[in-house]
Amino acid sequence: MTSPGNEDGHYRGTMQPIDFIEANQLSFSCGSAIKYLARHRRKGKALDLDKAVWFLSRCVICPPPLGAGYDLLEEFCQSQDMDDDESVIMEQIMCWWATGSSSWLEDAIDGIRELREKCYE
Hints:
This protein is 61% helix and 0% strand. By secondary structure, it is mainly alpha-helical. The chain has 6 helices and no strands. It is globular, with a radius of gyration of 13 Å. It has one domain.
């Protein structure tokens, strides 16, 4: 089923961002960052990566529940045709979610900034 607002197909694959976000019970900010990372190549380009950084920077306001796990990461990255750089960023985000360690979050933000520079500048 195509979700409203995805008529142009900027979300692909068998697992949509919402499925991954809900399966891992991610916060709004963390989930939004993942959504923008997943679609940047097919929709908003550099602006979507800027939004991903903005949402991740808000994650420090609402830290993850300690001991949170993460599921379906590899399946989600493959479903969204993420390249190695994007998959590493996703892993950093989810390591932050699982541990609460701000260094993972900082690495993810830096990775998105580098990805933006590589893809769009």
